[in-house]
Structures are given as structure tokens and as C-alpha cells.
Specification:
Layout (H helix, E strand, L loop, with lengths): L4 E7 L3 H6 L9 E4 L2 E5 L6 E7 L12 E3 L14 E10 L3 H10 L4 E8 L4 E9 L2 E7 L13 E9 L2 H8 L7 E2 L6 E5 L10 E5 L1
Parallel strand pairs: 1-3, 4-5, 6-9, 10-13
Antiparallel strand pairs: 1-4, 2-3, 6-10, 7-8, 8-9, 11-12, 12-13
């Protein structure tokens, strides 16, 4: 198992935005999705930072705002949209090799790699595991020297849901068309976050 495990994601959106999208958010502004707590601050949007545990030798993770704790993981919550876990956290990087090396040093081994996107705009994707969650590190296959030194940043989220059809029925026009995912045998749909006030690019996936 990887050393790094995500304890909490701090998200700048309002809690009500995520409640409207079918997540069970408590009065404290926290939703437990799988073993990860999501804390909504309403401070402005995006994934602001994360709290992790089991990082050997310090807390530097290629510029990602990180707090290291020795804390227990969350007990999974039950969500109206059927979300069971955070399937993956997407991290954008100006230099994918550099960011991957940072996580390898923290105990996370790359699981697979692919080139996605389009012919006009290819995207390199490297997947590493951090406890229950997959980290999808994305960037250009040929980094632009002008952008290469930029630190990594949080970009998006993917959630597994127990029944993606029922999730679509619940969210209606708040969820895009269900289609085949890159992962064999799984389905995926985009959460239309602008309808809820959700700033984080988000997709929902079948288990």
C-alpha cells in the first residue's frame, strides 16, 4: 500500500452546492466520501488543499498545499447520489515526470500511464495510488519550457457511484450523458457543476 493516504480535501465551494448535487454534507460542512472527508469552506472555489498521512521525511508534495497528520480515516457516509468513494483526484502539472517522482519518493508507485486528449491537444496521464484513492497526474507529453517550473495544482475529482443510472435520474439535467469510460466495463458522466455552483470539474463513474 502507498504511504500517502488522503484524510481530507478542503474545497472552497459552499456546502449547499454539493448538497444540491446529491452529497450528504453535515451541518459542519463536511461530507465523508469513502474514507476521505470533504470539507467545504465557501471561501472561493476549487480544491484549496488537502490533509494526508503517512508521508516519510516531510510534507512537500510538488507545491500542493499539504498538511500532514496522523489521523484516523473517515467512516463512509451514505449519499443520495450513490457516491461510494472518491475514485480519483486529478492533479495538473507543468512537468509530469517531476510530480510523479515526488509521489514515488513519498511511497506511491505509478500503476499505469496513457496518452489521452486529442491529436491537437494530447494529455499525458499517469496514475498512482494513494490509499483508497487514485491520483491522476496530467500534463503535456512534451512540457513547454516556459511552464515546466510551475508547481502542481489540484484540478478535478471523479466519484464512484453505486448506480449511475439512478444517479442520473436524481440529478436530471445536472448530469451529462452516460458514456463508456476509459476503464474497461465502467461508465462515466460529467457533473454539470455550473448548475449547482460547484467549481471543481467533476465526473461520476459506475463501480
Amino acid at each position: 500500500m502507498a504511504n500517502v493516504e488522503i484524510v481530507e480535501l478542503i474545497v472552497g465551494d459552499a456546502a449547499d452546492a454539493w448538497r444540491a448535487a446529491g452529497f450528504a454534507v453535515g451541518t459542519d460542512g463536511v461530507a465523508n466520501v469513502g474514507t476521505v472527508r470533504m470539507r467545504f469552506t465557501g471561501a472561493g472555489g476549487g480544491i484549496e488543499s488537502w490533509i494526508v498521512r503517512r508521508i516519510p521525511g516531510g510534507s512537500e508534495l510538488d507545491g500542493l498545499a499539504t498538511v500532514v497528520v496522523e489521523s484516523v480515516l473517515a467512516q463512509p457516509g451514505v449519499h443520495p447520489n450513490g457516491a461510494t468513494i472518491i475514485d480519483h483526484v486529478v492533479i495538473a502539472s507543468g512537468d509530469v515526470d517531476r510530480t510523479v517522482a515526488t509521489f514515488v519518493a513519498a511511497g506511491c508507485e505509478p500503476r499505469r500511464e496513457r496518452i489521452g486528449g486529442s491529436d491537437a491537444m494530447p494529455i499525458r496521464q499517469v496514475f498512482v495510488r494513494a490509499g483508497e484513492v487514485i491520483l491522476e497526474i496530467i500534463g503535456s507529453p512534451t512540457p513547454d519550457p516556459a511552464h515546466r517550473e510551475r508547481p502542481a495544482s489540484f484540478w478535478g475529482l471523479a466519484f464512484s457511484t453505486a448506480d449511475i443510472v439512478a444517479c442520473g435520474e436524481l440529478l436530471g439535467e445536472g448530469m451529462g450523458t452516460v458514456r463508456e469510460a476509459v476503464q474497461p466495463g465502467r461508465l462515466i458522466a460529467t457533473l454539470r457543476g455550473d448548475r449547482y455552483g460547484i467549481s471543481v470539474p467533476t465526473v461520476l463513474m459506475s463501480e
